[in-house]
Amino acid sequence: MSTNSIKKGLSAIANEVLKDVGSEAETIIQQAESQAKDILRKAKQDADLTYKTIIEEAAANTLAETRRINSLAEVEVRNMLLQTKEELLDEVFSKAISKLQDLTKTEAYHQLLLDLIQDAAKKMTAKNLLVQLNATDQAWLTHDKLSQLSERLQINLKIAKKPENFLGGCRVQTLEGDVIYDNSLESRMEQFKPDLRLKVSKAMFAEEKKNVN
Question: How much is the pTM?
Answer without folding.
Answer: 0.57
